[in-house]
Each structure stands twice: as C-alpha cells, then as structure tokens.
Amino acid sequence: MATNRTFTMLKPDSVEKGYIGAILEKINAAGFRIVAMKMTHMTTADAQEFYAVHNERPFYGELVEYMTRGPIVAAILEKENAVDDFRALIGATNPADAAEGTIRKLYAASMGENAVHGSDSDENAAIEGFFHFSGRDQF
Ligand code: CMP
Hints:
Layout: E1 3-10, H1 12-16, H2 20-29, E2 33-40, H3 44-50, H4 60-68, E3 72-80, H5 82-90, H6 103-107, E4 116-118, H7 122-132
Antiparallel strand pairs: 1-3, 1-4, 2-3
The protein binds adenosine-3',5'-cyclic-monophosphate (CMP).
C-alpha cells in the first residue's frame, strides 16, 4: 500500500471544547505523521468556497456559520492508505452512527457539529490541503 496524504480540520467545536490535544493524540496513535499544521479562523468567503460542493444543500448556511464561528486546526497527514484509514479513524458523519472508539463517537455532538473533517479522496485531499497551505509552506 502506498504512503499518501489526507487533509483534516479539527472544527470549531473541537477547539472550543479543548479537544485539540486528545484528537491529535488519537491521530498520532493511529500512525499518521503530521506534515503540516496550523490554527486558523476561516472567513465566511473561505468556508463558502471550501464547502461550495454543498451550496445547494439545506444545511449549507448553518455549515458556513459553524465553520466560521471560531478557530480551527488544519493539518495534512501522511500514512499508508491515508484517506481511507483516516475516514475509518474519524467514523461516520453522524456521530450517532459512528463506531465505538472513533473520533466522532468520542468527541462529536451531532451530524452538523461533528468535530473533525477528513478528505474523501486523494484528489480532494490535495485540493483541500492547497486551500489551507500555500506553496510557500514546505511539506
Ligand atoms: P464533513 O463531512 O466534514 O463535510 C460536510 C459537513 O456538512 C459535514 O462534515 C457536517 O459538518 C455537515 N453536514 C453534513 N450533513 C449534514 C446535515 N444533514 N445537517 C447538518 N450538517 C450536515
């Protein structure tokens, strides 16, 4: 299996509740190497663009408000089979459906406020990583 990369955000609810350390610990313990990381506060325009694929969905406005209400931690992670393994580690979008021991089961409150993002494909991992990290960052 090839080593590759995924992109994650610890969302505003994780930061507000003081879960950054606990979630990073789970990420490290699962064998991911953090190759880039920063705390940042998305603007409304940033969040609208990042989630443009959802702009017709009824929850889009709520999603943009949530993702801009406080800082997030954005990171690029490396591991064999990174995209699929990270999605397994975070669990289902709705924490009520997430498997025991997954990050969303442990730390997410609801479908909307689900603690953490994980890219759904190698292609989106690259797009989302470049959205948050510039060509001047070395990773
Ligand atoms: P994520 O899968 O990381 O990216 C899209 C986000 O939209 C998702 O996490 C949730 O935060 C949010 N989302 C998805 N489905 C719903 C829904 N039915 N209601 C509210 N928010 C949602």
